[in-house]
Structure formats: structure tokens, C-alpha cells
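Input C-alpha cells:
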């Protein structure tokens, strides 16, 4: 039945036409079907084109999109199939796409500012890689958590970048990652914090009943944790 599936193309819908199992898009008489493209969400013509300028995406861009779903995909394999897709498109479609932008993007206004930005007072051209652009954007607008200054002052030797990585490891249960986040950002409700919020009448540790319960006391200094902390120190 697939050979009877056809989609009428015109200038208003070319970008929305499916790439796969479409009798108008064939290679040597065979319908196209490439699972990595489908799993990555590349299923229609518009997914191969730029949004605000005419033309098709570069090979490296397609590979980057697919790599987000499957990091083991080889660049050469992606390029090979992408070439097959491009040569399978009807010539009139290719000509139209190379001359026209997606109709849904015609209301976008492009200025010179779209193609460069400043990082640390230096003009930076728009990078080719989305990952590179994202990292530069983080440098430009990202702000360190307020808690960082506290931890750096308290433990100058602490490498917070590694703490962030280890605290969010995918192998950790969700509850552990949530607890790690609360500790790193100092949002865990200790008795000290609860007292400040008027949610308790004292800040004494409910376990040892000897000291104020702040984060350090809760996880390190409480005398009732001595057996655990000694084991932990010996382990490392």
C-alpha cells in the first residue's frame, strides 16, 4: 500500500511533506526509511531546512541533531544517507527550498545582530556548532548560584564544578539527585533554616540534642554520625 501513498506538493506545503514512506521521495524506486532520522524527529522536509534563510542544513548540523539521540552514529553514515535523501527529493522541490524560506518563518526579522554577539566585550561570530553556541551563551548570561560564595569561603579547596557533575550523575536515583541539589544550593530545611522561617521554636539537632542543626552539623559534625563519618574517611 505504501507505493500508493502520495502527497501533492505546492509552495505552501513543501516544507510539511513527509520524507519517509512517501512515493514522491524515492531512491532507485524504493521508499526511504531511516530510523535514526525518525527517532531524532527528522521526518518532514522542513526538518532539513533552515528556518529563516533558504536552503538545506549542512551535514554537520544533521549529524549533531542525530547524535543527541544516538552518540554512536558515525558521521560518514549520516552523510551517506543525508545525501540519499537530498538526491531523492524532486528537483523542483530542491529548487524551491534553495530559493525560498519556510512560509511559517516569513514574519521573522533578521538583523546583523543575529549573527554575532559579545562575550567579555569581544565580538564573537555565530558559531557553527549548537553546542559551542550554547556554551558561549551560558558564559554570557549565566550566573553562579548564590550558594557558591558560601561553599568557596567555607571550603576553598572544594572543586564545585566536579560536585555539580557528580551530584547529577544519571546512575543516581532521583531522590539522591534532589538531595544533592538541595545541599549544594543550601535549600535543605535544617532546624536553623526552619527557625528563621518561624516553623520551629528551636534550632537544636533532634538527633544529638547538643548543637545547632545546620548543613555541616547534619551531615558531618553530629556526634551520632561519628561512626559513619569515620567509616567514610577510612573508605577514601
Amino acid at each position: 500500500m505504501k507505493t500508493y501513498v502520495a502527497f501533492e506538493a505546492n509552495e505552501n506545503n513543501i516544507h510539511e511533506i513527509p520524507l519517509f514512506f512517501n512515493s514522491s521521495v524515492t531512491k532507485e524506486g524504493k521508499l526511504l526509511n531511516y530510523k535514526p532520522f525518525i527517532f531524532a524527529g527528522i521526518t518532514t522536509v522542513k526538518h532539513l531546512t533552515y528556518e529563516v534563510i533558504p536552503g538545506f542544513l549542512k551535514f554537520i548540523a544533521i549529524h549533531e541533531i542525530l547524535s543527541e539521540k544516538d552518540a554512536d552514529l558515525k558521521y560518514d553514515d549520516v552523510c551517506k544517507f543525508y545525501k540519499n535523501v537530498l538526491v531523492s527529493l524532486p528537483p523542483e522541490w530542491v529548487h524551491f527550498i534553495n530559493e525560498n524560506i519556510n512560509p511559517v518563518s516569513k514574519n521573522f526579522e533578521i538583523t546583523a545582530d543575529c549573527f554575532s554577539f559579545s562575550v567579555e566585550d569581544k565580538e564573537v561570530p555565530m558559531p557553527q556548532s549548537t553546542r559551542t553556541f550554547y556554551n558561549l551563551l551560558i558564559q554570557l548570561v549565566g550566573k553562579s548560584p548564590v550558594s557558591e560564595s558560601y561553599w568557596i569561603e567555607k571550603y576553598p579547596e572544594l572543586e564545585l564544578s566536579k560536585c555539580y557533575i557528580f551530584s547529577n550523575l544519571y546512575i543516581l536515583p532521583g531522590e539522591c539527585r534532589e538531595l544533592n541539589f538541595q545541599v549544594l544550593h543550601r535549600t535543605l530545611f535544617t532546624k536553623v533554616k526552619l527557625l528563621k522561617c518561624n516553623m520551629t521554636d528551636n534550632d537544636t539537632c533532634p538527633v544529638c540534642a547538643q548543637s545547632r542543626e545546620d548543613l555541616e552539623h547534619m551531615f558531618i559534625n553530629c556526634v551520632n554520625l561519628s561512626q559513619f563519618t569515620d567509616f567514610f574517611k577510612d573508605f577514601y
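The CA atoms of residues 63 and 78 lie 6 Å apart. The chain has eleven helices and four strands.
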